[in-house]
Design brief:
Helices cover 39% and strands 23% of the residues. The protein contains 22 helices and 35 strands. The radius of gyration is 51 Å and the shape is rod-shaped. The relative contact order is 0.05.
Length: 854
Amino acid sequence: MSENVAGELLTRGDLSTCDREPIHLLGRVQHFGCLLALTSDWIISRASTNVREYLGLDADALVGTPFGSLIPGEVFAELREHVSELNTEDAVSRMFGVKLLSGSDRTYDLAMHVSGAWIILDIEAGEAAEYSDTNQHVRNMLAALPSCDSVEALCRAAARQVRELTGFDRVMVYRFAADGSGEVVAEERHASATSYLGLHFPASDIPQQARTLYRRNLLRIISDVDDPGSPIVPEFSPDGKPLDLSMSGLRSVSPIHIEYLKNMGVHASLSISILKRGKLWGLFACHHESSRVLPYRIRTGAELYGQIFGFVLDQLEGEIRSLGSGKAQALHHRLMSELADESGLAAKFPRLASSLQTVIECDGVAGYIDGQLLAEGDTPAEEDIKKVVRFLNTAGCSTIYKTDCLGDVFPPAEHYAATASGLLALPVSRTPRDYMMFFRKEFVSTVAWAGDPTKPLVADSQGERLTPRKSFELWQQTVRGRSKPWSDIECEAAESVRVTLLEVILRMADVAASDRARAQERQELLIAELNHRVRNILNLIRGLVTQSSADSRSVADFTDVVGGRIHALARAHDQITQQNWSPASLTRLIDTEVKAYIASKAERVVVKGNDVMLAPVAATTMALVIHELTTNSAKYGALADSRGTVTVELDTKGNGDLSMHWIETGGPPVQAPKRRGFGSAIIERSIPFELKGEAALHYRLAGVEADFVIPAAFISTDGSESVTVDETTTDEPMSSQSAFQHALVVEDNFIIAMDMEALLKRLGVPNVTVAAGVIDADRVLDEKPIDVAVLDVNLGSESSEPIATRLQQASIPFAFATGYGDVATLQKTFPGVQMITKPCQEEALREVLAKLSS
């Protein structure tokens, strides 16, 4: 009968249904000792038939006899004292070398424990003198253990020491796996003994009931597998219950186990439990090829050694865990430092993955953060990882998830088992959607079993029943679809990493939220500032339009005047916005205004003195002043004919103010106008009004002169030497007949589109087609023979880049029209592309068309 069945029957207290084995086998004891069951009144209630052999008394006559009448009074008092100390469950008290019987010098070793209503007394013959120094031997054994630096080394040392203590032919350290199977991880043996080192044993070899007993009673000995044992007399107590011998050292074992040992060629065995924090970690399994009665003092020393070995093992694993924790803590500090700039995980992920792999061994790392997938090393495909994430969302969101066979729990993973059989996932968000995932490749391994791990069912007269394995020869099994398992130490490190990453991500989220709040504040300020500036510009333009109408004699004249002044403002804004609304060069401003209006006469304007940088508000004011001086000179002054020149002298005064002197010479005689128009008002009044500076306009016969003082608050010098306007001239104006016949204008603003169409036609392009967006432009290109195009960059909600790409592929020249100063991105995408600044001037468009036709 198996121990499993025996445990069930003992629990039920019903033995009447047991017909496969003799009833007395359930409670039999071994012949090398005797057992007494005493009532609380110390009356002998049970006695085995071999009591007489040890005590020289009639066993039948003992039942009902007061135990105190058989032994010396001082021994009985000591026994009572020991029993009174049995105040915890499964406690056992021992006495060695006791002269138990009155009138006899024979010594005995005793063990006492409480079983239900009885006091169980195990009695064995006293030890020989050669075993008297067991405690010192055990102390020496324990002293050598702390020098081991790995679990494997510790187990090898312990196996050697237990063999030296017990004298058994073979001592194995047998470690239980998570699935209940066992492996021999260390072994010390006599040369004639078979080696089982590295072999695995199935969980069924040690049933769960036996494992429970191993946790309660740390030592079990079988001195002789051929010992028939002795039955318990009587079989039942008066209340019909059998005697529970779980804590007895003399108890016999299941016949199934006896047969198992005989099949291994073992005649005696000793099992010492290894507990780690109350859980069964493994066993010292000791085998002997002949019978062996091990004295109780040696067994007690071995039991003590097993207990302390469990503590040393736990301490060593704790130290190893501590080293792992130290690495995790170092990683924590490193990550917090590396990610201190809040640049996000995506930019740092390759280095982050490399750092994580120093703590958690794996083949690939993947992160799934806010819907973004990041991966380094050998990982499944992106879609497969997303499916794994959905699978993980069904698990707990605050604990790590591990498996060394992902295909077992998530069947779709079977097809990429070679890449990712093992998964260790760390949730790193408050909700189950963000993970760091560590993948391990398939580890094809060969597991060596001590015989076929399957116990066959055999049929006999009593039906089918389990039988012990008869062969322990090497039986190999190839395991696929699994990775190397994740160790407890790695899982603890993973938990530490999870907390670190959670802290990093939460900190980034807080910083991002703070950045968004600051960005929103800046945006609101920017919108307010933009609104203010747009209103000012609109008011300025309205003023330009209103005042210019008084100076104009015709619609065409009005258009030229207003257009010129608006273009002057636009060019000034281009300069101050190219560097994010920073100061603009005054000489460049003069150069730009002169070339924009009188490109062919630009060399006749000379600037002398040191350049200065104008604050943005001063740049727009000076742009209009210079524009008015230039246009007046071109119409009525020195630049009206082919001889005159204009000299602009710049001088920075000691207080930082700028003095600018405009001098016209060589032109027609000048007379003061009878009526002062808006242009003269701009020249004479805008600087004093806008900048609180000075302005004076003089109409001298030899030419117009103007003096200006710009306050230092609007000036910053750049330390350059005297400068002169670039005297290079632009290309000659094109003839009225253009090289292009069919132009495409892509512009979403109707008025601007019509203006561009009119400009192109004035420049000699006979056919111009306007498109408002990409779809319209594609249709035009499908229907008409376009040979040049002008594209507005931004078309409301879309960009004209798709049209530019199509034109480029068709080798049709084109230019971009943009109101933005930064065109670096466009020039990178379309190298060498021509750019037209909006609002577009006729002269600028003429130059672009000339370049496109060349």
